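DM from R.C. (forwarded with permission)

"hey, sorry to bug you on a friday — could you get me a structure for this? deadline for the figure draft is monday and I only need the backbone to look sensible"
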Amino acid sequence: NHITQTPELLRRYPLEDHKDFALPPDVIFFCQPEGCINTGHQRTGFQQLTSFVFTLTEKDSNRQRF
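My reply, with the result:
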């Protein structure tokens, strides 16, 4: 028993884009490429809540972007 939802960006830091790098809107698929999958136990309906944190860096310079 599971439900797949389209991922979405709920919060970001910094709140505004850097002058030299805008946060791409499809970054959500970098974080959750298979979508958000919710699973629960059928008997109790209990769902375990988890979170996922990532750091996006520039590949060539290792400069942290977000």
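R.C.: lifesaver. The first helix runs from residue 27 to 31.
me: no worries. Residues 1-66 form one domain.
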